[in-house]
Design goal:
The protein is an alpha+beta fold and about 600 residues long. It has a domain of about 240 residues: Dipeptide-binding Protein, domain 3. The protein is about 20% helix and about 25% strand. It is built from 14 helices and 25 strands. Strands 1, 2, 3, 5, 12, 13, 14, 15, 16, 20, 21, 22 and 23 form a 13-stranded mixed sheet that branches. Strands 8-9-11-10 form a four-stranded antiparallel sheet, covered by helices on one side. Strand 17 and strand 18 form a beta hairpin. The longest helix has 18 residues. The N terminus is likely disordered.
């Protein structure tokens, strides 16, 4: 998976998706993945206390069986822009705000001395007051310097660290919207002044990094280290949250977190969390849960997996829908796909209803086609913006469209105009995912009905979601059609870097528009949307953008993705969070029952 970054971008999903249509805990047995469908976020209870209930004990270990091992620990660069990194660090890197399972954006009472406030509308100004007790794990205070460091290193226009300076900024995150950051009261009060109103400020300055540890002798040296990130051989040795990294074993793809002794808030109830990479094979996941080799899993749901887990009597399970949707990216630099008429014809030929029925619809009847790139089906603001021709597969209409624009047929093969020859494309996705493998197979068969030859390719997530220098990666543009998911926050400005034009098609700038689609009209409307604060006006502008993107067909949304969590009933306070925050969002509250 990939994320929409803080107030500016979206995360991609390799293993678990994160949208929240609804959630429901199963009953009895293994939970059986039964569900209800309220609007909004998860219906699961939201634990609110770090104090175990009666019958609980302090201490103990929980082993989380993850699908993917983090390849990089820096969440601000493309190599670390994945759920595996974000979920591992959710209780290590501090943030003024958190997103709970209901998608409420709430201030972290331990981080803030007071709730952050808009203290001026002109200029648009936010004031943060950091808890005087807040320190990094080395005892140094968390201050305005850490806010400023994040702003500078992720701001492409920063004179020292931006693209004209050392070049730290690897993921566009709207940091260029900020005019200044200053500190007072021993740098425990942070004043952030924006160039214009910015509606999504709450989740922009998050996952703070320690400036005093990461700044090098020069901005260039800082950016060199920053862009390299922190590989598994040299993990995060710092923390500003309840947990901190203790040990890492890259060979075995495991790492261990223990309570941060310098954390000023309530300490975790457990003695340690162990992350063990076990992949996504359904039988392996079931056996590991059954044998207590792991106590928690959060895989992308598969039909066989849910059936197997439901047979375990000591396991609680639930499915949810959140802020993630499966889609196809079209690489418009491809000699065929640069033609919008071909992209539209592909959209008309793909049976999206059939894809839902053959994949996620098998284990959750609520699954449906997603006809909006900005909002998911049950999200406030959702509007079906898809033109009628995409309501159902219509190969005949797709052929007619193509022939009207100079395409011909040689036998059953679609021949492109201007001597480009037989239209042949490759669709790429992550390996080890039966749903995506089935989607590729179906898309291949469906596009064959209009004469397009499709080659299916599956790549390891570490390669597919590698940075723009990684051969075979999405960011390097090594695909014709890319099948993956976006995992978003509840905020909207993060969509800018996905759908805005990339200057000079320069992938090194770190934008998340992997297909390099560019529409100046979309850019102009985005420029309005990202400075529009009233929610109704902001929603209207983003729906206007989505309507135009249907005309461009740079991407084709498929369906909202469910999440699936299963865990041992011997543990309490575990609750799914089907946003980009992930399953470990409240892990400091988990406890082992007596």
């Amino acid at each position: 998976m990939r994320f929409i970054r803080k107030g500016a971008v979206v995360l991609a999903v390799t293993a678990a998706s994160a949208l929240a249509l609804s959630a429901c805990a199963g009953n009895g047995g293994g939970g059986g993945a039964k569900s209800s469908a309220p609007s909004g976020g998860s219906s699961a209870p939201v634990p609110s206390t770090a104090v175990p209930t009666s019958g609980a004990q302090h201490g103990g270990t929980l082993i989380y069986g993850s699908e993917q091992y983090p390849d990089n620990w820096n969440p601000a660069i493309n190599a670390g822009n994945a759920v595996s990194t974000a979920w591992a660090e959710v209780q290590i890197l501090p943030s003024p705000y958190i997103v709970n399972p209901r998608f409420d954006i709430i201030p972290d009472k331990n981080f803030n001395a007071e709730e952050p406030q808009i203290t001026s509308q002109n200029p648009f100004t936010i004031t943060y007051k950091i808890n005087p007790k807040a320190v990094w794990s080395d005892g140094q205070p968390i201050t305005s310097d850490d806010f400023k460091f994040q702003w500078q290193t992720e701001n492409p226009t920063d004179p020292l660290y931006g693209t004209k300076g050392g070049g730290c900024a690897s993921i566009a995150s709207n940091m260029d919207k900020i005019k200044s950051i200053s500190g007072s009261d021993n740098n425990k009060t942070v004043t952030v002044v924006y160039k214009a109103p910015f509606p999504d400020w709450k989740l922009q300055l998050t996952t703070l990094l320690p400036a005093h540890l990461l700044k090098k002798a020069t901005p260039k040296a800082t950016c060199t280290a920053f862009n390299a990130g922190w590989p598994a051989t040299s993990p995060l040795a710092f923390s500003g949250g309840p947990w901190m990294m203790k040990s890492v074993n890259k060979t075995q793809q495991t790492f261990t977190e223990t309570p941060n002794p310098k954390y000023w808030g309530p300490k975790p109830n457990l003695s340690q969390l162990i992350y063990k990479t076990i992949g996504s094979d359904a039988q392996t996941l079931q056996q590991d849960l059954q044998n207590q080799e792991v106590q928690l899993i959060y895989p992308q749901p598969q039909l066989d997996l849910i059936r197997l887990i439901s047979q375990l009597p000591d396991v609680q399970a639930q499915t949810s829908f959140g802020l993630s949707f499966e889609h196809i990216d079209f690489n418009v630099t491809n000699k065929f796909l640069k033609d919008v008429n071909l992209r539209r014809a592909i959209g008309m030929a793909i049976d999206r209803q059939g894809l839902v029925k053959a994949t996620v619809g098998q284990f959750d009847s609520r699954a449906k086609v997603d006809n909006n790139r900005i909002f998911v089906n049950n999200q406030p603001g959702y509007k079906d913006n898809a033109p009628k021709q995409y309501d159902k597969a219509d190969p005949a209409a797709a052929k007619k469209l193509l022939q009207q624009h100079g395409y011909t047929y040689s036998g059953s093969n679609l021949m492109a105009p201007h001597g480009l020859g037989h239209v042949a494309l490759k669709i790429v996705t992550t390996s080890g995912n039966p749903l995506r493998a089935e989607t590729e197979t179906l898309v291949k068969a469906q596009l064959a009905t209009i004469g397009i030859a499709v080659t299916t390719v599956q790549r390891d997530a570490s390669i597919w979601f590698g940075d723009n220098t990684q051969q075979g990666s999405l960011n390097a543009g090594d695909f014709d059609m890319g099948l993956y998911a976006w995992v978003a926050s509840p905020l909207l400005t993060g969509n800018q870097s996905i759908y805005a034009c990339v200057p000079n098609n320069n992938r090194a700038l770190g934008a998340q528009n992997s297909g390099l689609g560019c529409d100046k009209t979309v850019d102009q409307t985005i420029a309005k949307a990202v400075v529009t604060v009233p929610p109704d006006q902001q929603i209207a502008l983003w729906n206007q953008i989505d309507t135009q993107l249907w005309n461009d067909m740079f991407t084709l949304p498929l369906y909202q993705k469910p999440t699936f969590i299963a865990y041992s009933k011997k543990y309490g306070n575990i609750a799914d969070n089907a946003s980009s925050t992930g399953p470990l969002w409240n892990s400091q509250l988990w406890y082992r029952k007596q």
